[in-house]
């Protein structure tokens, strides 16, 4: 009778014990490993996704693995012991991913000379038009896109600005100030015949990847005007797309040769 009572007492104590105290770990030598997950993970007090969260472990952190099976690992990190998914561990130190900072554009937007740039719609907003690019000998750091003799446009770039105007005239469509930093505000100075005003425009991006019929362009500069219209500029190409305030494409580069 006494033995039966003792046996029942042991069974009762086992039933009342916290589940975490009953967890047994397979034999495993301690080792140093690293977290390699999609994001930061939680250390839990039991091998269950619904178990209490003890602490947050930053991705790529070094941890000490006390024991491990296919699903769960029992570890210690910063003085805390608990459980994480085994699949989040690696024995090799992972390279911490550092997102690249958007480039700051200070030059390089002039289109290359001795190329033919075809736009559809064209700068005039009409049918497909091809412009031949050549260095303008009369203006420092400038390239002209000519449709025919004396008809076309001229880009000018210096340490302070990037500009586009009508060739052989004093009319400019834009003069954007350098440097161009993503999410910053810069000025577009209108050098029109009767005005000389500054308009604040937003550099929406300097890291956009944009695909047109002319190819795929990386680190595209996207300039947003107060009315919602946008200008897309690419290194060595100048304008590759223009959108009006309704989001319609009014000019786009479709081929270069």
From TrEMBL:
Establish whether keyword Signal is in the entry.
yes
Renumbered to this chain, the signal peptide range is 1-29
Q: Which domain of life is it from?
A: Bacteria
* Chain ranges passing through the membrane: none
Cross-referenced Gene3D superfamilies: SH3 Domains (2.30.30.40)
* InterPro entries per UniProt: SH3-like_bac-type
Does Signal appear among the keywords?
Answer: yes
Task: Please report the stretch or stretches of sequence annotated as the SH3b domain.
Answer: 30-93
Q: Name one Pfam family in it.
A: SH3_3
PROSITE patterns named among the record's database cross-references: SH3B
UniProtKB keywords: Signal
Name used for this protein in its record: SH3 domain-containing protein
Q: Which organism is it from?
A: Solibacillus merdavium
Q: What is the lineage of its organism?
A: Bacteria, Bacillati, Bacillota, Bacilli, Bacillales
